[in-house]
């Protein structure tokens, strides 16, 4: 969204979020459904990508059922965008009161009682900002943050994500080190498991039986911290009457030292969350944008990594060597 916005549109979005921040979630849901139809007319790409992705994920669905799922999915995505103003700028008590159910909290409590950090896989399902609100209200919580393209939106987003106590770290190697330190303090961190990683920082692993380029950061963090991995989502309840937070035990594959096996476990964990309500996943994201054949043709793609392939960088000395290599490689490009 941010990359497509002009500064004028960014100002309009900021104004809209402020105006919507006082509405209730049922009111926002009622607005989302007709607005989603307008958005589809003005931007048919979202509908095309959603239809194609749903066809790949659920090939057994007949044409009518798939079309209905496309319509519902785009309505939920529109609702999420409208709800951001409420979550980031609205009354804290009102946001808190909109969270009507919490399932699986014992998974987090048990892990911390055992002296283990918690890695929360937070896919683009329901309203992930509501999940951030709840997590940072109840636990020391750290997540990566990349400022939006337009500075006008940055203070709104940053304030919204930090206002309940979350710690935001940059999406670079220093941010990864901050995540590691948080886990060693037995705190919780959040990772977006369905966001395509940078070139060389992922492997292909099946997502609904089709290879999807998936980040490999998770097994490195788990190996060095013995953290527990949990999937977390904030599911929108019927007619927008609030949210249900769900915490699910991650697929056991995420704990495997092999990057490909761990990545498949991550995708299996996302699939399990989607099964709660398939229409609430953000299907308009091009999850299968790259193919193994396409990326293998790119010269040096394995060397351009967000972090090294081994885990030597997780020590202070190794960390300094890693930064030195990055600066040297950057000067040579």
UniProtKB/TrEMBL annotation:
It is found in: Cell inner membrane. InterPro entries: LipA_acyltrans. Pfam families: Lip_A_acyltrans. GO terms for cellular component: plasma membrane. Keywords: Acyltransferase, Cell inner membrane, Cell membrane, Membrane, Transferase. GO terms for molecular function: acyltransferase activity. One of its GO terms (biological process) is glycolipid biosynthetic process. Signal peptide: none annotated. It comes from the Bacteria. This is Lipid A biosynthesis acyltransferase. It comes from Cobetia crustatorum.
């Amino acid at each position: 969204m941010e990359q497509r916005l002009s500064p004028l549109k960014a100002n309009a979005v900021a104004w809209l979020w402020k105006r919507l921040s006082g509405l209730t979630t049922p009111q926002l849901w009622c607005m989302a459904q007709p607005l989603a139809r307008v958005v589809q007319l003005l931007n048919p790409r979202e509908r095309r990508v959603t239809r194609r992705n749903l066809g790949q994920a659920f090939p057994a669905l007949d044409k009518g059922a798939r079309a209905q799922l496309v319509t519902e999915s785009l309505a939920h995505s529109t609702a999420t965008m409208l709800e951001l103003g409420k979550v980031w700028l609205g009354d804290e008590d009102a946001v808190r009161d909109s969270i009507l159910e919490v399932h699986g909290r014992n998974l987090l409590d048990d892990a911390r009682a055992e002296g283990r950090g918690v890695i929360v896989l937070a896919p683009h399902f329901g309203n992930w900002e509501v999940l951030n609100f709840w997590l940072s209200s109840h636990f020391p919580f750290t997540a990566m943050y990349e400022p939006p393209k337009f500075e006008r939106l940055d203070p709104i987003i940053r304030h919204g994500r930090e206002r309940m106590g979350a710690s935001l770290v940059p999406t670079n190697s220093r941010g990864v080190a901050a995540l590691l330190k948080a886990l060693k303090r037995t705190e919780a961190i959040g990772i977006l498991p369905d966001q395509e990683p940078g070139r060389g920082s992922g492997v292909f692993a099946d997502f609904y039986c089709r290879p999807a380029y998936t980040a490999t950061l998770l097994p490195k963090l788990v190996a060095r911290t013995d953290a527990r991995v949990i999937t977390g989502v904030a599911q929108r309840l019927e007619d927008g009457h609030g949210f249900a937070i769900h915490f699910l035990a991650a697929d056991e594959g995420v704990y495997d030292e092999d990057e490909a096996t761990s990545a498949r476990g991550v995708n299996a964990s996302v699939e399990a969350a989607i099964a709660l309500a398939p229409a609430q996943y953000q299907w308009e994201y091009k999850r299968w944008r790259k193919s193994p054949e396409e990326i293998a043709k790119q010269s040096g793609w394995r060397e351009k990594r967000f972090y090294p392939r081994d885990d030597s960088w997780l020590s202070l000395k190794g960390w300094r060597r890693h930064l030195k290599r990055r600066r040297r490689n950057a000067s040579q490009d």
